[in-house]
Amino acid sequence: MFPLLGGAAAALVVGVLAVPALLRGWADPSPSASAVAAVAAVAVGYLLAGFVFTLCGAAMVCAVDDVLRGEPVRVGVNCRRALRHWRRLLAWSLLNTTVLVLVRQLERVPVIGWFMDGLFSTGWAVATYLALPAMMIDGLGIAEGTRRSARMLRETFSRQVYGSVWIAVPLVLSVIVGFVAFMLGAESNSAGLAAAGGVLAALLLACALLAGATVSGIFRTVLYRDVSVAA
């Protein structure tokens, strides 16, 4: 439910920002104005979409925490619980986005840029894997939540890797099946079959992404509570 809400809200945000940028580009076709409008829309949309996904992820952590404590799950209650911490979540989303954008610049380094990008991106993702549950369940700030997530890394690393692999398996399979379906449709020389293959591929990918995001949210919340109780 929460990943679906996040995806729909992010798509709405991107649409709201993209339409005015396109209209401005049509009204003033000069390359400089269109480029500035496009860059501004992409930047703001990227930041807002990241915040929306963070907010919905926080609400999901709250919902899983309720289940583990034997309490009923109420979507509205969990969304309001996450919204009460919107300043903290916005700051976390901005920090996470900024770090990833800066790390992405490492791709420009000759020869080893792609390796450094992957290494630091993976390191940041692993070190902060439990930061959001720490902030939402124990009410920690960004700095303390990040430190606690990093401290738990030694105890959770193997389980993070194992869980991430199993979460990624359906996504990989859906991409393979969708690609095969699309190629079969395209090779049939039939516009209808090609369109059906494309729709099937898109549906499989969307379902896999939603399922992966849901399972990932559940897994990281359970893992955090398990390690916190053990400590």
Q: If you had to describe this structure to a student in words, what would you say it looks like?
A:
Helix 6 packs across helix 7 (142-151). The radius of gyration is 20 Å and the shape is globular. It has helices at residues 2-27, 31-68, 75-83, 86-104, 113-127, 131-137, 142-151, 153-187, 191-230. The protein contains 9 helices and no strands. Helices cover 86% and strands 0% of the residues. The protein is an all-alpha fold and 231 residues long. The model has no long low-confidence stretch (mean pLDDT 79).
Give the overall shape, derived from the CA principal axes: globular
Strand content: under 5%
Mean of all residue-level pLDDT scores: 79
- Rg over C-alpha atoms, rounded to the nearest angstrom: 20 Å
Given as residue ranges, the uncertain stretches (5+ residues, pLDDT < 50) are none
Helix-and-strand structural type: mainly alpha
- The helix fraction, in percent, is over 70%
| Biggest pleated-sheet summary | none
Number of DSSP strand runs: 0
Helix count equals 9
Instruction: Give the termini separation.
Output: 31 Å
Order of helices and strands: HHHHHHHHH
